[in-house]
Design brief:
The chain contains 15 helices and 2 strands. The protein is mainly alpha-helical. The chain has a two-stranded antiparallel sheet. α14 crosses α15. The radius of gyration is 23 Å and the shape is globular. The relative contact order is 0.15. The structure holds heme C (2 copies).
C-alpha cells in the first residue's frame, strides 16, 4: 500500500470510529417514564364516525386527485395544493398564506390530523371535513359558493367517481355536494401520517429495555430531550405522541395584525363554532349517535380565550418553517430563543404562569434544536 493509501485508510478508520461512537443513555428513571409518554408511534388508525367515507378506498383516491385540481377554485386559479404543497410537507414555506390576498395566518402542514378534537389555529371546526369547507367557500381562498362548486364537479371528469361513492349528483342540493367533497378530501388527508423517527426508535428501545439500541440516539438530542421534558416545561403543552395537547394556549406571540387590529385567536374560533351548522352536533355529521359532539356543546367563551392559539404538533416541524400562527419566527433556533427570552409582558391570558425565561446556554439551545430535529427525520 502506498503512503497516501495508508493515510486515507487511517482517515476512513478514524471517521468510522467517530461516527459509530455510541452515546450513553443519560436519562433518569423519571425522564425515561416521561419519554415513554411521547409514543408509541404511529398511533392506531381510527376512522371518523361523522364522515361515512372515512377510510373508503375510492374516496381516498378521489380526494387525492381533487386536492390538487384547480376545479376546486372558482376561477380555476388555485387548489388546496397551492398552499398545502405535497413537496413542502403540505405547507408553503411562507410566513402567511397567499390566497387572493395575503391571509393573516401561516399555512398549517397537514400531517397526522385524524382524530383531532379541534382544527385550525383557533379551532374553528371540530371535524376535519368541516375544516375543509372553509377554504372552499372563503372568498379570499378558493372562493366557490355551493352552486359553483357543484356545477364545477358536475362538468368535470370526476363526476363518475363521485357518483360511484355518493350516488346521483342530481338528487343532491349544492350544499350537500359541497359538504360531500369536503368529506372526500378529509378521507384523503386522514391518510397523511408521518413515519417513525429516530426519537421513536429511541423511545421504543427504552420501552423494550434494549439499552444497546437506545445508545444509538445521539447525546445532544438526549440532552435536548431532558430540557424539553424538564426545565423547559415544553411537555406541559407539547404532550403525548403528537407533541401537542390539542388545546389552546398563550405562547406570548404578539397577536397584532400589521394593518391594525388584532387576531382574536380562540375567541373567534369559539364564535365560529357556535354559529356553524357544520359541527359534530349538526345535521351534516353522518353518525346519529353524534359521538364527539360533547366538546362543542361544552364550549363557552371566556375572556382568557382572547389571542390564544392551538398548540401545534412538533412532528415534522423542522420542515415547516416559518413558525407560529403568524409565521413570525423564521426557524427553530428563533423559536427556541423566543422561549428562552420570553417576554412576560406579552403573556396576556390567565394561567400561563408555566412560561418563564429559560436562561439556556448556547449549548442548551443547540441541544434542544438537535432534539426537535429527531422528530422530523422519518
Ligand atoms: C390560500 C392558501 C390556502 C388554500 C388554498 C388552502 N388552505 Fe388550508 N390552510 C391555510 C391556512 C392559512 C390555514 C390555517 C387556517 C387558520 O387557522 O386560520 C389552513 C389550515 C388548514 C387545515 C387545518 C389543519 C390543522 O392543523 O388543523 C386543513 C385541514 C386544511 N387547511 C385543508 C385544506 C384543504 C382541504 C384545502 C383545499 C380545499 C385547503 N386547505 C386550501 C391555507 C390554505
Ligand atoms: C403554555 C403552552 C406552551 C409551552 C409550555 C410551550 N409551547 Fe410551544 N407552542 C405553544 C403554542 C400555543 C404555540 C403556537 C403559538 C402561536 O402561534 O401563537 C407553540 C408553538 C411552538 C412551535 C412552532 C410550531 C409551528 O408549527 O409553528 C415550536 C417549535 C414550539 N412551540 C416549541 C416549544 C418548545 C421547544 C417549548 C419548550 C421550551 C415549548 N414550545 C413550550 C404552546 C406552548
Amino acid at each position: 500500500m502506498t503512503w497516501t493509501g495508508r493515510l486515507i485508510g487511517t482517515l476512513v478508520w478514524v471517521l468510522c470510529g467517530l461516527s459509530s461512537t455510541q452515546a450513553d443513555v443519560i436519562l433518569s428513571a423519571d425522564e425515561t417514564a416521561q419519554t415513554l409518554r411521547h409514543g408509541p408511534w404511529p398511533p392506531e388508525v381510527t376512522l371518523d364516525p361523522s364522515n361515512r367515507v372515512s377510510g373508503d378506498a375510492n374516496a381516498i383516491a378521489l380526494g387525492e386527485v381533487l386536492f390538487s385540481d384547480p376545479i376546486l377554485s372558482r376561477d380555476r386559479a388555485m387548489s388546496c395544493a397551492s398552499c398545502h404543497d405535497p413537496e413542502r410537507d403540505f405547507s408553503d414555506g411562507l410566513a402567511r398564506a397567499e390566497g387572493r390576498k395575503r391571509l393573516d395566518r401561516n399555512t398549517q402542514a397537514l400531517w397526522n390530523l385524524a382524530g383531532q378534537r379541534w382544527y385550525g389555529w383557533s379551532g374553528d371546526s371540530d371535524s376535519l371535513w368541516a375544516q375543509n369547507l372553509t377554504p372552499l367557500l372563503n372568498p379570499a381562498e378558493l372562493g366557490h359558493d355551493p352552486q359553483s362548486m357543484q356545477s364545477a364537479l358536475f362538468a368535470s371528469v370526476h363526476r363518475p367517481a363521485y357518483e360511484a361513492i355518493y350516488g346521483e349528483m342530481d338528487a343532491e342540493s349544492a350544499l350537500e355536494t359541497t359538504v360531500n367533497i369536503s368529506k372526500i378530501l378529509a378521507a384523503y388527508i386522514e391518510t397523511l401520517r408521518s413515519g417513525k423517527t429516530s426519537f421513536d426508535h429511541f423511545r421504543d428501545a427504552l420501552a423494550n429495555g434494549d439499552m444497546q439500541l437506545a445508545t444509538q440516539y445521539p447525546e445532544p438530542a438526549q440532552r435536548g430531550l431532558q430540557i424539553f421534558i424538564g426545565r423547559g416545561n415544553c411537555t406541559f403543552c407539547h404532550s403525548g405522541p403528537k407533541f401537542t395537547n390539542g388545546e389552546f394556549h398563550d405562547a406570548a406571540v404578539p397577536y397584532f395584525l400589521e394593518q391594525g387590529g388584532v387576531d382574536p385567536g380562540r375567541a373567534e374560533g369559539i364564535d365560529r363554532l357556535l354559529e356553524s351548522p357544520f359541527t359534530l352536533d349538526g345535521d351534516f355529521a353522518d353518525d346519529a349517535s353524534k359521538a364527539g359532539a360533547w366538546a362543542v356543546r361544552n364550549v363557552r367563551f371566556q375572556h382568557g380565550n382572547f389571542g390564544i392559539f392551538r398548540v401545534p404538533t412538533l412532528r415534522r416541524a423542522a420542515h415547516t418553517a416559518p413558525f407560529m400562527h403568524d409565521g413570525s419566527l423564521p426557524d427553530l433556533a428563533a423559536v427556541i430563543q423566543h422561549y428562552n427570552h420570553i417576554d412576560m409582558e406579552r403573556l396576556h391570558s390567565d394561567g400561563e404562569a408555566i412560561l418563564r425565561p429559560l436562561e439556556l446556554s448556547d449549548q442548551d439551545a443547540e441541544d434542544l434544536e438537535a432534539f426537535l430535529e429527531t422528530l422530523a427525520d422519518d
